[in-house]
Amino acid sequence: MVLKAFFPTCCASADSGLLVGRWVPEQSSAVVLAVVHFPFIPIQVKELLAQVQQASQVGVTVLGTWCHRRQEPEESLGHFLEGLGAIFSHKPWFQLCRERGSKSWSCKATHWQGPASPAASGEDQVMLIFYDQRKVLLSQLHPPTALPNRQAGDTTASAGGLAAVFDTVARSEALFQSDRFDEGPVRLSHWQSEGMEASILVELAKWAAGPVCLFLACLLSLISAASACRVFKLWPLSFIWSKLSTCEQLRHRLEQLTLIFSTQKAESPAQLMRKANMLVSVLLDVALGLMLLSWLHRKDLIGQLADALIPVADHVAEELQHLLQWLMGAPAGLKMNRALDQVLGRFFLYHIHLWISYIHLMSPFIERILWHVGLSACLGLTVALSILSDIIALLTFHIYCFYVYGARLYCLKIHGLSSLWRLFRGKKWNVLRQRVDSCSYDLDQLRLLVVAVQGLIHLLVDLINSLPLYSLGLRLCRPYRLAAGVKFRVLEHETGRPLRLLMQINPLPYSRVVHTYRLPTCGCHPKHSWGSLCRKLFFGELIYPWRQRGNKQD
Amino acid sequence: MEDEQSFSDICGGRLALQRRFYSPSCLEFSLSCPRITLRSLTAVTCTVWLAAYGLFTLCENSMILSAAIFITLLGLLGYLHFVKIDHETLLIIDSLGIQMTSSYASGKESTTFIEMGQVNDVVINEAIYMQKVIYYLCILLKDPVEPHGISQVVPLFQSAKPRLDCLIEVYRSCQDILAHQKATSTSLEGGDRIISASNRRSHSGMGAYWHRQEDKR
């Protein structure tokens, strides 16, 4: 029977003493957490272990002895260590030994002869696995298949083999609180025994976080209360608010900020990661927005844009009119249904005329409006992009109407053709083969471009909203924090000596990081992805550039 | 204890199997794939540069040539770092688990570790691959819900693709360790392992499992 002993690398150079840790009988493995040095009083050691056991719910006991000796073996020490086995009885009793300055280790595990078993005390083979205690403590294991019953918090350690090791180390923080400068009765050696790890900035941030969170939470609750007031629930306003993507984006950001600055502590590591991701995402958004604002103002782009808008709109209208005149004639030599041609052509020409009048009416106010809209970039790049998308939607509303008429007619034609094709495959000749030719208004490049640009802007905003930046940054800079599993390396091996392995943390791949920690977006286009956008354009299904309330996903 | 043998893969390339025996409970197999040859590298580079030169004579834009050089370099680096596997290693540790490592030509290593509690068995499976019928070694994982069922098949040595003689060598040693582990474990299937084909669900096109039948000859 091969027993496994998980030994921390920080204790490999510690002086001789007692091994303290947890024995997991189901895996036949012993997880060593610390080494207790001489001199000690057994009663005090037992008291300390009882305290740690109560604080952390982990069954910490004395597992065996650790001997780090010099060249000359000390006989008295050997006998003394054997005698300790009688004081702290534990089955099996580990005796790890290392010669100072060399790489040869020896370890044996003995079962003391109990009154029930008549067989002599047997020795078992031991496999040593070294692990980095700090990394395993801070790491979070992501199992490949998360079973639902594993997520439930239970007081005992989880059963999965390596998950038990990670769990034991993570929960034994009470044992690592004392370092060698403390004047306690028992002297321990572990990863923090050279001095507790702490950072002044982190402590200051923790101290300041309380009042700041409280203040911001009050402010945010005032804003949400103001926005939820009855004025905004009246029918025309509520319809407009629900359709504009800017309002959705602002509401989403408000929800996220409320969650970040709430005064409750995060219950689970997953919630903490989510909060951190949201905070980093909001900060990055605001930073990008401010950069955009400074760039716009430096080059006075707003003035140039406002001056260029009217001539461009006139030019577009003129081109559209030429196109419609061409289509109403004989486009590319095709013969069209004259009556339908004239009707639709005149209908669209009147649309364009209305739109040009509307633009000319708005022209004095354009620059002011654009300047105020540019200020909204302070709230974040996503807000600026949503406003841009809303402006495009409003300015090109007439083009959207053309697109709707054209797409509907095109869709009808496609359906008609496909039903005819089905009939043809059924080997049935259909005399009725009239095709509605005049509705072959092909999607104009301009309309296509506008609709595609709107779809792309929405997808970009969703991407910025949902990308977990903090998790990605953590995976880049501290890869051991997010663990997909472990990997083992066999260390130098001599025959007759126990097998020694080094356990290292295998970090989570980036795709799984994004998939696990993806933030929920306001879910306005769950059906939209880049592929479905192209598919909808090709088959003539309608693309709705405004947000649909019914499609919210959470 | 280390020894090296030479085998061939399904396309005829030369493979080297290195076996390291650390202890009766720990064994490592390292299979090194055929290296990238100078001939193929030269062929690809010449093709790309000829195409770029053809485009250059059409467009008279010298950016195309520098772009072609960039593309060749980046493509080679990307190929070495993400695609070309130098050697694959299988490490079996009794009572701990099985670890598969793929080392890429640029030095990157990608490791997967499967705990022994999840491993049902290691078998050689038959499959149809393009126009050939090939053998591959795979690990069968236990189903957490059904004790004798199989939830997943994890194939090994997918880039090296060795032939049956090499697979049999690896298979025999794996079975020795697994049998030793099952005999000493406190699970229900201690002692004699009875393999019943009815319990196995086939996961490949032509599923046929090679196990004890080989030893019975």
UniProtKB/TrEMBL annotation, chain B:
BP term (GO), one: GPI anchor biosynthetic process
This protein's encoding gene: PIGH
Entry keyword annotation includes Nucleus: no
Source organism of the structure: Phocoena sinus (Vaquita)
Family: Belongs to the PIGH family.
Coiled coil (residue ranges): none
Keyword Transmembrane applies: yes
Start and end residues of each Phosphatidylinositol N-acetylglucosaminyltransferase subunit H conserved domain: 89-158
Pfam families: PIG-H
A GO cellular component annotation in the UniProt record: glycosylphosphatidylinositol-N-acetylglucosaminyltransferase (GPI-GnT) complex
Pathway(s): Glycolipid biosynthesis; glycosylphosphatidylinositol-anchor biosynthesis
Membrane-spanning residues: 36-56, 62-82
Protein's name in the database: Phosphatidylinositol glycan anchor biosynthesis class H
PANTHER family the UniProt entry points to: PHOSPHATIDYLINOSITOL N-ACETYLGLUCOSAMINYLTRANSFERASE SUBUNIT H
Keywords associated with the record: Membrane, Transmembrane, Transmembrane helix
